[in-house]
Amino acid sequence: MNEQMQALSQAITKADIAMKAAAWQIEQMRSDIDQLRKCLFELAYTAEENGIYLSNMTKTSQDTIVAMRLGGFK
After folding, report:
1. Helix, strand or coil for residue 33?
2. DSSP single-letter state for residue 10
3. Which of 19, 25, 51, 57 sits CB 3.0–4.6 Å from 61 for a disulfide?
4. Cα–Cα dist 24/30, whole Å
5. What angle do CA 40, 46, 52 make, to 5 degrees?
6. What totals of helices (H) and strands (E) does the chain contain, helices first?
7. HSE (side-chain half, CA atoms, 13 Å) at 66
8. In this structure, how many other beta carbons lie within 10 angstroms of the beta carbon of residue 44?
9. pLDDT tens digits, one per residue of 4-25
10. Measured between alpha carbons, how far is residue 71 from residues 28, 50, 51 in Å?
């Protein structure tokens, strides 16, 4: 019985460590996404100021920038 309790305790400890590592990775990804969003806003603004309009970009880029400006990607 004691061995079973010890094995269960070890499994719980390993799961806790894995959950904390996953939470840290998710937080890092959120930070990266925030930085990339800011960069995309700046690039889109700079491009338009220099005569590179949405119509000159690929459909995917156009859709992404429009969605971002309309409040998407939060």
Report:
1. helix
2. H
3. 57
4. 10
5. 100
6. 2, 0
7. 10
8. 19
9. 999 999 999 999 999 999 999 9
10. 22, 24, 24
Place of tokens 């840290």: 24
Pick from 39, 43, 64, 41: which is nearest to 52 by CA? Answer: 43
- The answer to whether the CB of 68 falls within 8 A of the CB of 41 is yes
Helix pair angle (2-49, 59-69), 10° resolution: 100
Structure tokens at 26: 């998710």
| Token pair for 8 | 């269960």
pLDDT digits (tens, 9 = 90+) for 14-65: 999 999 999 999 999 999 988 988 898 898 889 889 988 888 889 998 888 8
Among all chains, which residue has been given the structure tokens 């894995």? 18
pTM value is 0.65
